[in-house]
Design a protein that fits this description.
By secondary structure, this protein is α+β, with helices and mostly antiparallel strands. The chain has six helices and six strands; from the N terminus they run H-E-H-H-H-E-E-H-E-E-E-H. The chain has a domain of 140 residues: GMP Synthetase, Chain A, domain 3. The longest helix is centred in the middle third of the chain and has 15 residues.
């Protein structure tokens, strides 16, 4: 686990992946929400102005805040419960395992277009913003954060590296990686893209 304050976490989310196990999240001052766009939910408002109402830590509130995250405009670029993402093979979901003191354990299931560490990192930042008493957001099994699975033969030699991510349905992710860009900064669809076939590289 790598302890960090919320500002440092924000930089890491913007600049690169998180550690494969988890990370520390320090408490932040009480924040007060300002409404910016009535069509967005509370998570989208927070992303736009970085202020939000806080609440106390318990399992019900964690589940509620995860739902806010999943149902946000941002979550609609990430989770397979949304029709457009399901249509391109994204099946990823995030759920609560347990709350133990100030530590929250989550689980990631299915296939994501984003790096799994990015999914956990964004969820952790949101949970800490809403419940500042949270100190750590982790997964129970570090393998849940691995985007590739090494298939080994009987002698322990790696014979195949299986990609656990959702399909790169239009080639954008691979193209951005080739160009040295972080695909997770944009998500599977360009901003305001229409239709599941849209591509920033080859619009269709």
């Amino acid at each position: 686990m790598i302890p960090s304050n919320l500002f440092a976490m924000a930089l890491v989310v913007l600049l690169g992946p998180f550690n494969a196990r988890g990370f520390g999240v320090s408490s932040t001052p009480q924040l007060h929400r300002s409404i910016t766009n009535p069509l967005n939910n509370i998570y989208d408002d927070w992303r736009s102005d970085a202020v939000v109402d806080t609440t106390f830590l318990d399992e019900d509130n964690v589940r509620h805040c995860l739902e806010e995250f999943v149902e946000s405009d941002y979550g609609k670029q990430m989770f397979g419960c949304h029709e457009q993402l399901a249509s391109i093979g994204i099946t990823g979901s995030i759920d609560l395992v347990e709350v133990c003191g100030p530590e929250v354990t989550l689980t990631l299931n299915g296939e994501f277009w984003h790096r799994r560490s990015t999914v956990l990192g964004r969820a952790a930042m949101w949970l800490n913003a809403r419940m500042p008493e949270i100190t750590d957001v982790i997964v129970a099994d570090p393998e849940e954060l691995e985007d590739f699975e090494e298939i080994k033969d009987d002698f322990g030699e790696v014979v195949f590296r299986k990609d656990k991510r959702a399909p790169d349905f239009n080639g954008d992710r691979g193209t951005m990686e080739y160009q040295g860009m972080d695909p997770d900064m944009r998500g599977p669809f360009p901003q305001n893209a229409l239709g599941s076939g849209s591509s920033m590289i080859n619009p269709i």
